[in-house]
Amino acid sequence: MAADSKVVIVSATRKSAADFQSKTALGVSLARLAHDARLQVLVAMSNARGLPQVYNDIMDQCDNDSIIVFMHDDVWIEDYYMLQRVVDGLQHFDVIGLVGNRRRVQDQAAWCFLNADLQWDDYGHLSGAIGHGANPGGEVHYYGEAGVACELLDGVFLAARKSTLVDNAVSFDPRFDFHFYDLDFCRTARLRGLTLGTWRICVTHQGAGIFGTPDWRRSYAAYLEKWGE
Amino acid sequence: MKVVIACATRESAGEFQSRTALGTSLVRLAYDGRMEVRVAPANTRGLSEVYNNFLDNMDADDIAVFVHDDVWIDDYFLIQRVVEGLGQFDVIGVVGNRRRIPKQASWGYLNEDFLWDDAPHLSGTIIHGTGEEISVNHYGVSGVACEILDGVFLAAKKSTLTKAGLKFDPRFTFDLYDVDFCRSARERGLKLGTWPICLTHRSPGAFGGGAWRAAYQAYLAKWGS
Which CATH number fits the domain that encloses residue B105? Predict the structure, then answer.
Protein backbone atom coordinates (compact mmCIF):
# COMPACT_ATOMS: atom_id res chain seq x y z
CA MET A 1 0.00 0.00 0.00
CA ALA A 2 1.37 3.42 -0.86
CA ALA A 3 2.19 5.60 2.13
CA ASP A 4 -0.17 8.29 0.86
CA SER A 5 -3.19 6.06 0.20
CA LYS A 6 -6.51 7.75 0.77
CA VAL A 7 -8.30 7.06 4.00
CA VAL A 8 -11.97 7.36 3.11
CA ILE A 9 -14.50 8.14 5.81
CA VAL A 10 -17.74 6.54 4.66
CA SER A 11 -21.05 7.31 6.33
CA ALA A 12 -24.78 7.62 5.77
CA THR A 13 -26.97 10.33 7.24
CA ARG A 14 -30.59 11.34 7.16
CA LYS A 15 -29.45 14.98 7.10
CA SER A 16 -28.91 17.16 4.04
CA ALA A 17 -25.34 17.89 2.99
CA ALA A 18 -25.37 21.27 4.74
CA ASP A 19 -26.92 19.88 7.90
CA PHE A 20 -24.47 16.99 7.93
CA GLN A 21 -21.55 19.39 8.07
CA SER A 22 -23.04 21.74 10.63
CA LYS A 23 -25.31 19.55 12.75
CA THR A 24 -24.00 16.01 12.93
CA ALA A 25 -21.27 14.95 15.31
CA LEU A 26 -19.29 13.33 12.52
CA GLY A 27 -19.67 16.25 10.13
CA VAL A 28 -18.59 18.83 12.69
CA SER A 29 -15.69 16.85 14.05
CA LEU A 30 -14.23 15.98 10.65
CA ALA A 31 -12.66 19.45 10.77
CA ARG A 32 -10.17 17.97 13.24
CA LEU A 33 -8.78 15.74 10.50
CA ALA A 34 -8.58 18.34 7.74
CA HIS A 35 -4.82 18.76 8.24
CA ASP A 36 -4.25 15.22 6.99
CA ALA A 37 -4.03 15.14 3.20
CA ARG A 38 -4.98 11.47 3.13
CA LEU A 39 -8.55 12.29 4.23
CA GLN A 40 -11.43 11.76 1.84
CA VAL A 41 -15.08 11.91 2.94
CA LEU A 42 -17.90 10.13 1.12
CA VAL A 43 -21.30 10.43 2.76
CA ALA A 44 -24.75 9.37 1.54
CA MET A 45 -26.85 12.44 2.36
CA SER A 46 -30.62 12.43 2.99
CA ASN A 47 -30.27 8.68 3.17
CA ALA A 48 -33.17 6.29 3.58
CA ARG A 49 -31.45 3.08 2.44
CA GLY A 50 -29.94 0.43 4.64
CA LEU A 51 -26.34 0.81 5.71
CA PRO A 52 -25.03 -2.29 3.89
CA GLN A 53 -26.37 -1.05 0.57
CA VAL A 54 -24.84 2.39 1.11
CA TYR A 55 -21.52 1.02 2.35
CA ASN A 56 -21.22 -1.41 -0.58
CA ASP A 57 -22.09 1.28 -3.13
CA ILE A 58 -19.56 3.73 -1.73
CA MET A 59 -16.93 1.02 -1.42
CA ASP A 60 -17.34 0.37 -5.15
CA GLN A 61 -16.43 4.01 -5.80
CA CYS A 62 -13.25 3.94 -3.72
CA ASP A 63 -9.82 3.40 -5.23
CA ASN A 64 -8.61 -0.14 -4.80
CA ASP A 65 -5.64 0.92 -2.66
CA SER A 66 -7.71 3.08 -0.34
CA ILE A 67 -8.47 2.44 3.29
CA ILE A 68 -12.14 2.70 4.19
CA VAL A 69 -13.56 3.73 7.56
CA PHE A 70 -17.26 2.94 7.91
CA MET A 71 -18.69 5.20 10.61
CA HIS A 72 -22.03 6.27 11.99
CA ASP A 73 -22.90 9.97 11.67
CA ASP A 74 -23.50 10.35 15.42
CA VAL A 75 -19.84 9.90 16.32
CA TRP A 76 -17.62 12.74 17.56
CA ILE A 77 -14.07 12.20 16.43
CA GLU A 78 -11.89 13.38 19.28
CA ASP A 79 -8.70 11.81 18.00
CA TYR A 80 -7.12 14.13 15.45
CA TYR A 81 -4.51 11.46 14.71
CA MET A 82 -7.29 9.11 13.66
CA LEU A 83 -6.11 8.53 10.10
CA GLN A 84 -2.60 7.58 11.20
CA ARG A 85 -4.00 5.31 13.88
CA VAL A 86 -6.18 3.56 11.31
CA VAL A 87 -3.14 3.03 9.09
CA ASP A 88 -1.21 1.69 12.09
CA GLY A 89 -4.06 -0.58 13.18
CA LEU A 90 -4.41 -2.12 9.75
CA GLN A 91 -0.79 -3.19 9.91
CA HIS A 92 -1.83 -5.47 12.77
CA PHE A 93 -5.32 -6.58 11.74
CA ASP A 94 -7.30 -6.86 8.50
CA VAL A 95 -10.34 -5.17 10.03
CA ILE A 96 -10.27 -2.87 13.05
CA GLY A 97 -12.94 -1.45 15.33
CA LEU A 98 -13.08 0.42 18.61
CA VAL A 99 -14.86 -2.10 20.81
CA GLY A 100 -15.49 -5.78 20.34
CA ASN A 101 -15.64 -9.29 21.69
CA ARG A 102 -12.77 -11.73 21.71
CA ARG A 103 -15.18 -14.63 21.31
CA ARG A 104 -18.46 -15.46 19.59
CA VAL A 105 -21.00 -17.80 21.12
CA GLN A 106 -24.01 -19.54 19.67
CA ASP A 107 -26.99 -17.21 19.04
CA GLN A 108 -24.93 -14.16 20.04
CA ALA A 109 -27.10 -11.06 19.54
CA ALA A 110 -24.53 -8.22 19.45
CA TRP A 111 -20.81 -7.78 20.01
CA CYS A 112 -21.54 -7.43 23.72
CA PHE A 113 -24.87 -9.30 24.16
CA LEU A 114 -24.89 -13.08 24.43
CA ASN A 115 -28.54 -13.62 23.51
CA ALA A 116 -31.91 -12.11 22.65
CA ASP A 117 -32.44 -11.25 26.31
CA LEU A 118 -29.55 -8.78 25.89
CA GLN A 119 -27.43 -10.50 28.52
CA TRP A 120 -24.01 -8.80 28.65
CA ASP A 121 -21.00 -10.98 28.13
CA ASP A 122 -18.39 -11.06 30.88
CA TYR A 123 -15.93 -8.20 30.63
CA GLY A 124 -13.13 -10.74 30.43
CA HIS A 125 -14.18 -11.35 26.83
CA LEU A 126 -14.67 -7.72 25.82
CA SER A 127 -12.13 -5.29 24.42
CA GLY A 128 -11.69 -1.57 23.80
CA ALA A 129 -13.07 1.71 25.11
CA ILE A 130 -15.48 4.31 23.76
CA GLY A 131 -17.07 7.54 24.95
CA HIS A 132 -20.84 7.88 25.13
CA GLY A 133 -22.74 11.17 25.38
CA ALA A 134 -24.48 13.93 23.50
CA ASN A 135 -21.42 16.15 23.38
CA PRO A 136 -17.72 15.59 22.76
CA GLY A 137 -15.89 14.38 25.81
CA GLY A 138 -18.55 11.84 26.75
CA GLU A 139 -18.26 9.37 29.57
CA VAL A 140 -15.70 6.72 28.72
CA HIS A 141 -16.79 3.10 28.87
CA TYR A 142 -13.81 0.81 29.18
CA TYR A 143 -14.49 -2.80 28.29
CA GLY A 144 -11.00 -4.24 28.24
CA GLU A 145 -7.56 -4.00 26.75
CA ALA A 146 -7.52 -2.66 23.18
CA GLY A 147 -5.25 -3.81 20.37
CA VAL A 148 -6.30 -7.44 20.68
CA ALA A 149 -7.83 -9.93 18.24
CA CYS A 150 -11.62 -10.15 18.26
CA GLU A 151 -14.37 -12.22 16.68
CA LEU A 152 -16.94 -9.43 16.62
CA LEU A 153 -16.60 -5.63 16.42
CA ASP A 154 -19.20 -2.92 17.01
CA GLY A 155 -20.35 -1.44 13.69
CA VAL A 156 -20.15 2.10 15.02
CA PHE A 157 -16.65 2.15 13.50
CA LEU A 158 -15.13 -0.43 11.17
CA ALA A 159 -12.04 0.06 9.02
CA ALA A 160 -10.31 -2.08 6.42
CA ARG A 161 -8.31 -1.82 3.24
CA LYS A 162 -10.62 -2.04 0.24
CA SER A 163 -8.23 -4.48 -1.42
CA THR A 164 -8.45 -6.82 1.59
CA LEU A 165 -12.24 -6.88 1.39
CA VAL A 166 -12.36 -7.24 -2.39
CA ASP A 167 -9.68 -9.92 -2.54
CA ASN A 168 -11.56 -11.95 0.05
CA ALA A 169 -15.06 -11.27 -1.25
CA VAL A 170 -16.16 -9.60 1.96
CA SER A 171 -18.95 -7.03 1.74
CA PHE A 172 -22.01 -6.01 3.70
CA ASP A 173 -25.11 -8.17 3.30
CA PRO A 174 -28.03 -5.95 2.20
CA ARG A 175 -30.57 -8.19 3.90
CA PHE A 176 -29.54 -6.39 7.11
CA ASP A 177 -30.48 -2.73 6.91
CA PHE A 178 -29.17 -1.40 10.21
CA HIS A 179 -29.22 -4.16 12.81
CA PHE A 180 -26.86 -7.14 12.64
CA TYR A 181 -25.02 -5.90 9.56
CA ASP A 182 -21.91 -5.58 11.73
CA LEU A 183 -22.15 -9.08 13.26
CA ASP A 184 -22.77 -10.55 9.84
CA PHE A 185 -19.85 -8.59 8.34
CA CYS A 186 -17.45 -9.66 11.09
CA ARG A 187 -18.56 -13.25 10.92
CA THR A 188 -18.14 -13.26 7.15
CA ALA A 189 -14.68 -11.75 7.49
CA ARG A 190 -13.63 -14.38 10.02
CA LEU A 191 -15.05 -17.12 7.78
CA ARG A 192 -12.78 -15.81 5.00
CA GLY A 193 -9.79 -15.95 7.33
CA LEU A 194 -9.41 -12.23 8.01
CA THR A 195 -8.11 -11.02 11.35
CA LEU A 196 -10.22 -8.57 13.37
CA GLY A 197 -9.07 -6.43 16.26
CA THR A 198 -9.75 -3.38 18.37
CA TRP A 199 -7.56 -0.29 18.13
CA ARG A 200 -7.05 2.75 20.33
CA ILE A 201 -8.95 5.61 18.70
CA CYS A 202 -10.88 8.14 20.79
CA VAL A 203 -14.47 9.03 19.91
CA THR A 204 -17.75 9.83 21.64
CA HIS A 205 -20.79 7.98 20.32
CA GLN A 206 -24.02 9.90 20.80
CA GLY A 207 -26.26 6.87 20.37
CA ALA A 208 -26.22 3.96 22.78
CA GLY A 209 -27.48 1.53 20.18
CA ILE A 210 -31.01 0.29 19.62
CA PHE A 211 -31.71 -3.26 20.70
CA GLY A 212 -34.80 -5.34 21.33
CA THR A 213 -37.22 -3.47 19.07
CA PRO A 214 -39.44 -5.30 16.55
CA ASP A 215 -37.06 -4.29 13.70
CA TRP A 216 -34.12 -5.58 15.70
CA ARG A 217 -35.90 -8.89 16.38
CA ARG A 218 -36.70 -9.33 12.69
CA SER A 219 -33.03 -8.80 11.85
CA TYR A 220 -32.00 -11.22 14.58
CA ALA A 221 -34.29 -13.86 13.06
CA ALA A 222 -32.82 -13.19 9.61
CA TYR A 223 -29.32 -13.49 11.06
CA LEU A 224 -30.12 -16.81 12.74
CA GLU A 225 -31.71 -18.05 9.55
CA LYS A 226 -28.65 -17.15 7.50
CA TRP A 227 -26.05 -18.63 9.85
CA GLY A 228 -28.05 -21.38 11.55
CA GLU A 229 -27.13 -20.04 14.99
CA MET B 1 4.83 1.56 38.03
CA LYS B 2 2.44 4.50 38.10
CA VAL B 3 1.89 7.26 35.59
CA VAL B 4 1.68 10.39 37.71
CA ILE B 5 -0.17 13.37 36.27
CA ALA B 6 1.53 16.32 37.98
CA CYS B 7 -0.08 19.73 37.83
CA ALA B 8 -0.12 23.11 39.55
CA THR B 9 -3.25 25.22 39.67
CA ARG B 10 -4.39 28.46 41.21
CA GLU B 11 -7.75 26.83 41.92
CA SER B 12 -8.65 25.04 45.14
CA ALA B 13 -8.57 21.24 45.09
CA GLY B 14 -12.34 21.09 44.67
CA GLU B 15 -12.41 23.67 41.92
CA PHE B 16 -9.55 21.96 40.12
CA GLN B 17 -11.69 18.85 39.78
CA SER B 18 -14.89 20.63 38.83
CA ARG B 19 -13.74 23.71 36.91
CA THR B 20 -10.41 23.21 35.22
CA ALA B 21 -10.04 21.58 31.82
CA LEU B 22 -7.50 19.13 33.16
CA GLY B 23 -9.42 18.27 36.29
CA THR B 24 -12.66 17.55 34.50
CA SER B 25 -11.09 15.61 31.65
CA LEU B 26 -9.02 13.37 33.93
CA VAL B 27 -12.23 11.58 34.89
CA ARG B 28 -12.13 9.91 31.49
CA LEU B 29 -8.78 8.31 32.27
CA ALA B 30 -9.86 6.95 35.64
CA TYR B 31 -10.40 3.44 34.25
CA ASP B 32 -6.64 3.05 33.88
CA GLY B 33 -5.31 1.75 37.18
CA ARG B 34 -1.83 3.03 36.41
CA MET B 35 -2.89 6.68 36.68
CA GLU B 36 -2.27 8.77 39.76
CA VAL B 37 -3.04 12.49 39.93
CA ARG B 38 -1.03 14.91 42.04
CA VAL B 39 -2.05 18.54 42.14
CA ALA B 40 -0.60 21.59 43.85
CA PRO B 41 -3.84 23.51 44.52
CA ALA B 42 -4.07 27.23 45.28
CA ASN B 43 -0.55 27.42 43.94
CA THR B 44 1.49 30.61 43.85
CA ARG B 45 4.94 29.04 43.46
CA GLY B 46 6.83 28.69 40.22
CA LEU B 47 6.19 25.62 38.12
CA SER B 48 9.81 24.47 38.31
CA GLU B 49 9.73 24.37 42.09
CA VAL B 50 6.37 22.57 42.14
CA TYR B 51 7.43 20.03 39.53
CA ASN B 52 10.68 19.28 41.36
CA ASN B 53 8.76 18.68 44.58
CA PHE B 54 6.46 16.28 42.76
CA LEU B 55 9.48 14.45 41.36
CA ASP B 56 11.06 14.14 44.79
CA ASN B 57 7.93 12.44 46.09
CA MET B 58 7.48 9.93 43.26
CA ASP B 59 8.59 6.31 43.35
CA ALA B 60 11.76 5.54 41.44
CA ASP B 61 9.92 3.59 38.73
CA ASP B 62 7.13 6.14 38.20
CA ILE B 63 6.48 8.04 35.00
CA ALA B 64 5.90 11.77 35.46
CA VAL B 65 3.54 13.72 33.20
CA PHE B 66 3.82 17.47 33.72
CA VAL B 67 0.79 19.19 32.28
CA HIS B 68 -0.84 22.60 32.60
CA ASP B 69 -4.25 22.83 34.26
CA ASP B 70 -5.86 24.48 31.21
CA VAL B 71 -5.42 21.38 29.07
CA TRP B 72 -8.39 19.24 28.11
CA ILE B 73 -7.28 15.68 27.50
CA ASP B 74 -9.09 14.53 24.39
CA ASP B 75 -7.14 11.28 24.32
CA TYR B 76 -8.52 8.80 26.84
CA PHE B 77 -5.75 6.38 25.98
CA LEU B 78 -3.22 8.93 27.21
CA ILE B 79 -1.63 6.70 29.84
CA GLN B 80 -0.88 3.92 27.34
CA ARG B 81 0.40 6.40 24.77
CA VAL B 82 2.80 7.95 27.30
CA VAL B 83 4.16 4.50 28.14
CA GLU B 84 4.62 3.76 24.44
CA GLY B 85 6.20 7.15 23.72
CA LEU B 86 8.75 6.69 26.48
CA GLY B 87 9.74 3.45 24.80
CA GLN B 88 11.03 5.61 21.95
CA PHE B 89 12.24 8.78 23.66
CA ASP B 90 13.53 9.81 27.10
CA VAL B 91 11.27 12.86 27.24
CA ILE B 92 8.11 13.33 25.17
CA GLY B 93 5.84 16.27 24.41
CA VAL B 94 3.03 16.95 22.00
CA VAL B 95 4.57 19.77 19.95
CA GLY B 96 8.17 20.81 19.51
CA ASN B 97 11.04 21.94 17.33
CA ARG B 98 13.51 19.65 15.65
CA ARG B 99 16.26 22.27 15.95
CA ARG B 100 17.46 24.92 18.35
CA ILE B 101 19.23 28.08 17.29
CA PRO B 102 21.04 30.75 19.35
CA LYS B 103 18.73 32.96 21.39
CA GLN B 104 15.68 30.88 20.51
CA ALA B 105 12.81 32.25 22.58
CA SER B 106 10.44 29.26 22.72
CA TRP B 107 9.88 25.96 20.94
CA GLY B 108 8.16 27.83 18.09
CA TYR B 109 9.66 31.35 18.21
CA LEU B 110 13.16 31.99 16.91
CA ASN B 111 13.78 35.23 18.77
CA GLU B 112 12.35 37.83 21.12
CA ASP B 113 10.55 39.49 18.21
CA PHE B 114 8.48 36.30 18.01
CA LEU B 115 9.52 35.28 14.54
CA TRP B 116 7.82 31.94 13.98
CA ASP B 117 10.10 29.14 12.80
CA ASP B 118 9.64 27.51 9.40
CA ALA B 119 7.21 24.60 9.26
CA PRO B 120 9.78 21.91 8.33
CA HIS B 121 11.46 22.37 11.71
CA LEU B 122 8.28 21.97 13.74
CA SER B 123 6.54 18.81 14.89
CA GLY B 124 3.25 17.69 16.37
CA THR B 125 -0.36 18.81 16.52
CA ILE B 126 -2.41 20.45 19.24
CA ILE B 127 -5.80 22.13 19.43
CA HIS B 128 -6.12 25.63 20.84
CA GLY B 129 -9.42 27.11 21.90
CA THR B 130 -12.54 26.44 23.89
CA GLY B 131 -15.82 24.76 23.09
CA GLU B 132 -16.61 24.88 19.41
CA GLU B 133 -14.21 27.78 18.79
CA ILE B 134 -11.20 25.66 18.23
CA SER B 135 -8.22 25.69 15.95
CA VAL B 136 -6.35 22.51 15.07
CA ASN B 137 -2.72 23.53 14.83
CA HIS B 138 -0.80 20.98 12.83
CA TYR B 139 2.88 21.85 12.91
CA GLY B 140 4.36 18.73 11.39
CA VAL B 141 4.64 14.99 11.64
CA SER B 142 4.68 13.64 15.19
CA GLY B 143 6.86 10.90 16.66
CA VAL B 144 10.13 12.55 15.68
CA ALA B 145 13.20 13.65 17.62
CA CYS B 146 13.19 17.26 18.81
CA GLU B 147 15.50 19.72 20.53
CA ILE B 148 12.77 21.70 22.30
CA LEU B 149 9.28 20.67 23.43
CA ASP B 150 6.40 22.87 24.55
CA GLY B 151 6.00 22.71 28.32
CA VAL B 152 2.23 22.45 28.06
CA PHE B 153 2.84 18.68 28.27
CA LEU B 154 6.10 16.93 29.14
CA ALA B 155 6.55 13.32 30.24
CA ALA B 156 9.55 11.28 31.36
CA LYS B 157 10.47 8.38 33.58
CA LYS B 158 11.62 9.61 36.98
CA SER B 159 14.51 7.14 36.80
CA THR B 160 15.69 8.71 33.53
CA LEU B 161 15.70 12.19 35.03
CA THR B 162 17.34 11.03 38.24
CA LYS B 163 20.07 9.12 36.42
CA ALA B 164 20.75 12.18 34.26
CA GLY B 165 20.72 14.51 37.27
CA LEU B 166 18.03 16.54 35.57
CA LYS B 167 15.50 18.77 37.30
CA PHE B 168 13.62 21.94 36.49
CA ASP B 169 15.62 25.08 37.20
CA PRO B 170 13.70 27.09 39.84
CA ARG B 171 15.07 30.35 38.50
CA PHE B 172 12.39 29.98 35.81
CA THR B 173 9.00 30.28 37.43
CA PHE B 174 6.70 29.91 34.42
CA ASP B 175 8.30 31.30 31.26
CA LEU B 176 11.25 29.57 29.58
CA TYR B 177 11.29 26.74 32.15
CA ASP B 178 10.48 24.32 29.34
CA VAL B 179 13.16 25.58 26.94
CA ASP B 180 15.69 25.40 29.77
CA PHE B 181 14.56 21.90 30.79
CA CYS B 182 14.78 20.57 27.23
CA ARG B 183 18.18 22.16 26.65
CA SER B 184 19.45 20.68 29.90
CA ALA B 185 18.07 17.28 28.87
CA ARG B 186 19.82 17.42 25.51
CA GLU B 187 23.06 18.52 27.18
CA ARG B 188 22.88 15.33 29.25
CA GLY B 189 22.33 13.22 26.16
CA LEU B 190 18.63 12.51 26.61
CA LYS B 191 16.44 11.95 23.55
CA LEU B 192 13.43 14.24 23.18
CA GLY B 193 10.52 13.68 20.84
CA THR B 194 6.93 14.45 20.07
CA TRP B 195 4.28 11.79 20.45
CA PRO B 196 0.76 11.66 18.96
CA ILE B 197 -1.41 12.45 21.98
CA CYS B 198 -4.56 14.54 21.49
CA LEU B 199 -4.97 17.60 23.71
CA THR B 200 -6.85 20.87 23.63
CA HIS B 201 -4.94 23.77 25.19
CA ARG B 202 -7.41 26.38 26.32
CA SER B 203 -4.93 29.22 26.22
CA PRO B 204 -2.50 30.31 23.51
CA GLY B 205 0.39 30.94 25.90
CA ALA B 206 1.66 34.31 27.12
CA PHE B 207 4.72 35.83 25.52
CA GLY B 208 6.31 39.26 25.56
CA GLY B 209 5.19 40.63 28.92
CA GLY B 210 7.53 41.98 31.55
CA ALA B 211 7.82 38.64 33.35
CA TRP B 212 8.50 36.86 30.09
CA ARG B 213 11.26 39.29 29.12
CA ALA B 214 12.89 38.95 32.53
CA ALA B 215 12.85 35.17 32.17
CA TYR B 216 14.31 35.43 28.67
CA GLN B 217 17.18 37.54 30.00
CA ALA B 218 17.77 35.00 32.79
CA TYR B 219 17.80 32.24 30.18
CA LEU B 220 20.36 34.09 28.05
CA ALA B 221 22.45 34.84 31.12
CA LYS B 222 22.47 31.15 32.04
CA TRP B 223 23.23 29.71 28.63
CA GLY B 224 24.99 32.59 26.89
CA SER B 225 22.76 32.36 23.84
Answer: 3.90.550.10
